[in-house]
Amino acid sequence: MLKLPCEKVLHDAFLTGVLNLSQRQLKEFPNEASSDISDLIKADISSNCLTELPITLCELRVLETLEFRSNSLKTILPAISSLISLTYLDLSDNHLTDLPDVLFSLPLKVLLLSRNRLQSISAEIRHLGPTIEEIDLSSNKIRSLPNGLSVLTELKVMNLRGNQLKDLPGDIGTMNVRSLDLGNNLLIRLPVEFCKLGGCVDFKVDGNPLIEPPMNVVRRVRH
């Protein structure tokens, strides 16, 4: 399907508050955007070749949704802290190796970071506690999680499948999540606190070399 010229897309975004520049093989953000999109509510810049978040996007103080998956993003600029209205952020399928602490100062409800190269998560993630409802960290290289995740009281979905976790902080078992995916990690044992996950209706721990409790016990308990 023939795509509209960027100039036309930017003009439409000025009128609607929604910008869609996905799947355009962009290597840089259009310069002409700077004066036209200050009132954007949603931006989809996914499936391009961008290596950093454009400063222009980081200045959009009313932006609520940013989709930036499937690019070549290697780092996140501290300027992202200016996105004070952002509630939905998709940075899946990029090349991120770490996250700036300022990311966790945003009022995010959904944070999608699957298929990156993250090895750890800062304890600052706890600052998402009042708002965050879904976190996807699947298919990274995360080896450990910080303590204190139980302060994420609004969190309902947490996906950690396909990482390198060998153990877990005990308080993850006291969270109010409805869905928790720990499959395909390196877990040998689950903390005893996991018996408190009564409200979790979708719990996955397959693909781990579990010893305590054995996998057959986990299956019986969850069913």
Structure notes:
The protein has a nine-stranded parallel beta sheet. The longest helix is centred in the first third of the chain and has 11 residues, at 6-16. Helices cover 10% and strands 12% of the residues. The protein has helices spanning 6-16, 55-58, 215-222; strands spanning 18-20, 42-44, 65-67, 88-90, 110-112, 134-136, 157-159, 179-181, 202-204. The termini are far apart. The chain has a single domain (6-204), classed as Leucine-rich repeat, LRR (right-handed beta-alpha superhelix) (Alpha-Beta Horseshoe). It has three helices and nine strands. With 223 residues, it is α/β, with parallel strands linked by helices. The mean pLDDT is 90. Helix 2 (55-58) links the parallel strand 2 and strand 3 (65-67).
**Total helix count?**
3
| Major pleated sheet | 9 strands, parallel
In helices, the fraction of residues equals: 10-25%
Uncertain spans, ≥5 residues at pLDDT below 50?
A: none
Rg result: 19 Å
Write down how many β-strands occur, each being a DSSP E stretch of 2 or more residues. Answer: 9
Gross CATH architecture: Alpha-Beta Horseshoe
Tell me the span between the first and last alpha carbons. Answer: 48 Å
Q: How many separate domains make up the residues?
A: 1
Q: Name the shape in a single word.
A: elongated
Structural class: alpha/beta
Helices and strands, in order, run as HEEHEEEEEEEH
Strand content: 5-15%
GO cellular component, one term: cytoplasm
Keywords: Leucine-rich repeat, Repeat
